[in-house]
Design goal:
Blueprint (H helix, E strand, L loop, with lengths): L1 E2 L9 E2 L8 H14 L12 H8 L3 H14 L2 E4 L3 E4 L21 E2 L12 H14 L14 H15 L8 E4 L2 H12 L5 E4 L4 H9 L4 E4 L1 E2 L2 E2 L10 E4 L13 H14 L2 E5 L23 E6 L11 E4 L2 H11 L8 H13 L1 H27 L4 E3 L6 E6 L4 H10 L2 E2 L1 E2 L15 E6 L5 H19 L2
Length: 468
Amino acid sequence: MTAADDGGLGVDLHLELSAAGGRRTALIAALREAVRGGRLAPGTRLPPYRSLAADLGVARNTVADAYAELVAEGWLTSRQGSGTRVADRVAAPAPRSIRPTAPPPLPHDLVQGKPDPAAFPRTAWLAAARRALAAAPHEAFGIGDPHGRTELRHALTEYLARVRGVRTAPDRIVVCSGAAHALRLLARALGPADPWAVEAYGLPFHRGLLAGAGVTTLPVAVDEDGARVADIPRHARAVLLTPAHQFPTGGPLHPERRAGALEWARASGGLVIEDDYDGEFRYDRRPVGAVQGLDPERTVLVGSVSKSLSPALRIGWMCLPSALVGPVVAAKGEREPHSSATDQLTLAELLASGAYDRHVRRMRRRHRLRRDRLTALLAERAPAVRVTGIAAGLHAVLELPPNTERAALAATARRGVAVEGLDLYRHPDAPRSGGADGLVVGYATPPERLYEPALEALCDGLSEVLGD
């Protein structure tokens, strides 16, 4: 049974009066067990006599007597004006230890793609949330539109045009929960009959979710100019590219290859799916616009805030050709099941107010300084290592001599460094690029006080393997 809160003076309380004896005895036993088992923490205020008695269907005096008995035993305390509470000296039992199912994380996190959680702009987000909620129409708190909030789609239309050269309109944007969700929806909308071409080096998670949707993936080789788009199979239904900053090898897609990808799409009737990975974070080069701006009817641009703000927000978007909006929305369903309307409203306000731009510029400066510290220390401690892919993004690729990647991973792990090998990202059907051993090192995640120790530990591991 449940005791209702009486004017804020008590708590909801579930008790089973199943012990042998009368109602008073059963109530004492139930309360004692709730305290002993930790369900009622020290200091918890219990419901008033009348409230608990009404909910349990017992006399008020029964509750009063039970409370008095437990006060006398030391389980509860009672003070005028403060009500009846669980005694502070009654400690809940320690939780049973649970055998870990995975090894504990390594202390130095240099895994790519994860922003520092402490860098989330809490003050700006809170201010934007207050303004957005104050201005939100009542219908914003009803059943969500699968297209996404109109405020966010309008804000994205303006922002992406200004910053990324995207040509779209609010009715051609569909909000999703991130790049992975976008790929699932696109796979469902396009159907599994025809294969997709993907870059030979890319996220295995993305290839896995496409395989789970029944889509076969065909690798397209990459080099210093990005994907070799001349090798895209003509029968592919789509090609998934990271033109702004090829993931993970780095570098933008060469202008001739951008044009070549669109020529393939027009000639074959295929679709270019542009994962705008790291499009906002560039350091040593001029901004590179989105491929989508060159041909909006042959390109889907996929973006999110997982790198710029936080993956915890679960907000992404697709800028779609007009013919694909209906199929993608149908694949998503009649209601918004993923992205919170309040988070969408807040992000729209953050974009419209300019606070998002300011945050990105601030993080761009921070990431550049971290990248420079990484490259400087490597030049000093491991000069044989060539560092690539550093003109943009949140990671660098450390090119290693042939057949040293596994040894480098083992050596750095022994020093507590979490880092990934380049071969992890290779498509299983793609041959290894000549001597393509390397480490993919993220420099955004560690808090500032741990960043230098992480770099030193990384260099110690490399020195063990390379002998520098």
